[in-house]
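Worked problem 6 (solution included).
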Amino acid sequence: MTKIAFIFPGQGSQVVGMGQEFVGNTPASKVFYENADQVLGFELSKIMLEGPAEELTLTYHAQPALLTTGVMVAEKLRAAGITPDYAAGHSLGEYGALVIAGVLSFEDAVAIVHKRGLYMNEAVPAGKGAMAAILGMELDALRNVTDQITAAGDEVQVANVNCPGQIVISGTKAGVEKASVAAKEAGAKRAIPLVVSGPFHSELMRPSAEQLRVALEAITLSAPQIPVIGNVKADELQDVSAIEHELVEQVYSAVQWEASVREMIAEGVDVFIECGPGKVLSGLVKKIDRSVTTYCVFDEASLETVVEASKEWAINA
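Solution. The predicted structure is:
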């Protein structure tokens, strides 16, 4: 029997025009963009649909933008009769998973991720932090490198364990630069600096985590209606207290995406549907396990592809 996971991308997947076709053709889809504008008090939808890209890329715009598009796409899928058995998201994407699981309302999620973006943007002055993707190196070996650089005075740590052979590091600009050099000397194939506005998922983000904790206390969370696999420990988030702790800890902790995907596969998930722009997560899932099926839904054609495929899932159920 087919088991489906909806997965939601994080920052970096945003693109001007995201969701345009759905919003233009379906009033029910447009409502999500209108509600986001109303919650935030400014025209996020205009930035999403018209740009400029520099505005959309700002952390406090990209986060609610990706959430809005991801949830809108997920609801399009559910309206077409495709319901998830599991949900997960990469970093910011975890909020989309929680909305679909009924943990928090869409409106509360839009408000909280906008604040999350503001807090993260304020935590470290521009130019002081950095991130880099390290390719072709084992996790333990890379952690030895980052631990040594940090012990020497330049903070850096593992930020995302994305898939075999792809790990992201984050920290001070000097720490990331030194760790990148040391990683290549220790056998890494490549070290690629990332174009980001801050050292996300590092200890440098702790001030923003504390601000987020206070903001989360002001909204209502409910128990999940479907299993959500968390980023920090790659296990199921089963109650409200665990979810609150996860969302705070996630800000300065590594995203265990590879382990999260493996957990869902172990629970029988064999179809992963990426909700929103881009194909980043689908690509990572395939690198983790090529035997599963992946889809990316971002327009009418990609939605129809999944709808047609779902007819076969029903026959084989």
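Discussion: The chain has a mean pLDDT of 95.
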